[in-house]
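Our preliminary data section would be incomplete without showing what the modeling component actually yields. Below, a chain of 277 amino acids is followed by its predicted structure, encoded as tokens that our downstream tools consume directly.
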Amino acid sequence: MRTRDFSRAPRQARAEALVVLERTGAGAAWARRARRAVRAADGYVWSAGLRARDADGRRVRGLVVCVATPADAHALAGSSAPGHERARTFVADAEGYSNGVWRAEGDVMAHIERFTALTSESTRGRTPPLVAPAPPRRRDAGAQDGPRGDAPRSGGTPAQAGALFLGATRYRGPHAWAALSREWYPMVAAMRRMKGYVWHRVYWEPPFTLGTIAFFADRDALMLFARLPAHRRLMTWITRDRRHGTGGYIRVHVAAQDVRDDGADALADDGTRGDAS
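Predicted structure:
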């Protein structure tokens, strides 16, 4: 269900901004030093590791860091303490999604009625389509899964993405994970084949919460992913009752330069560009 109140959701959902820090060719020692540095930064909320490859095939290490405010994100991106080569800041949309035990407006586990509008729909004043039931999954849906793991397509690394979603679901136990796998792998395969897909990773929090961070070329590519039949099937499966899960949330973040307002206190370019150092 759509919401602007994430007070009952995990701390990542309450963060209003996010920073991606990257360094090409870095090893585990740099990652440890960078993690210590970001944990000491103002507004630090949460972080996750990043391993990817750039367009030239070089190994990239980094961190995805949730912070309290866009100002905290700008300060972290411009800091030299983590020792990163590239940084990009993302600002959370005011509206997102929450369900079940993580929903502030009431303990409701339900799906949304309509998709979020794409840019073309907004500019033309068109109402986005209903979230109609997805067609049944084909038996060969996983036949073209492609590579798995969290390596990106050749389009770049998270610091070059334009939008991302950060979300998680609280499952009831291992039996729910086993059932989830039937829908999860076909959905990931479909996401990887998308033109606007950049990178993703899954994280775990005890006891049975699984979360996803996924980066896309722009906000429209992210919203098109939500309309994939495989994604609709998974969301319908988890929100139809409480047999498999009791809570969930999704927050969408957009790259800071794409949402800066020249009429307000805008972030400086050196903290938001993909080539910031």
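Residues 2-259 form a domain with the Alpha-Beta Plaits fold (CATH 3.30.70.100). The chain has a mean pLDDT of 87. Preliminary results of this kind motivate Aim 1 of the renewal.
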